[in-house]
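User: I'm preparing a small set of examples for a lab meeting where we compare how different chains pack in three dimensions. I only have the primary sequence for this one, and I'd like the structure in token form so I can line it up with the others. Please keep the answer compact; I'll paste it straight into my notes.
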Amino acid sequence: HGALEEKRDAQWPPPVKANLYTFTPRNAATFPDGRPRQEIYDRFKSLVTEDNQVCRLVGQDPLDDAQVRGMLAESMGWPIGTRPPSKQRLLGPKESDAWLPPTSAPRHVHLSQLPTCAAEVAVHGQMISGKSHLVILFEELRSGWFS
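Assistant: Understood. Below is the structure token output for the 147-residue chain.
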């Protein structure tokens, strides 16, 4: 009976369906930040806090968030300080963009593999530290939010 419980606990919560977008450089071996590729799932997980102790799937696509698109695009060579590209432009870049159209692969992943919802991270971090949303999101990016 104990082995069955361990197996169930290892699969709980069950894997979720998510698409993994993989971006590669157009004319170089790596992006300006030194990475050979940028990967991001099309799903978010919730932030686990003292008030919200259960991680759950958040329905928002990270690429629908302008700040997320901006940080991802800047890490791939988009001009810093300019308006972020649209989701359509990010997924269908122009010849002048530093990245190729991404590949998309459907996956079954555990919630722990998904990025934490950017809005929840920013709001929670601002409440705890008093930092701005952009500073907190930048810190998340530097710590490996995108792989």
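A couple of notes for your slides: Residues 1-9, 122-134, 142-147 have pLDDT under 50 and may be disordered. The longest strand covers residues 16-23.

User: Perfect, thanks.
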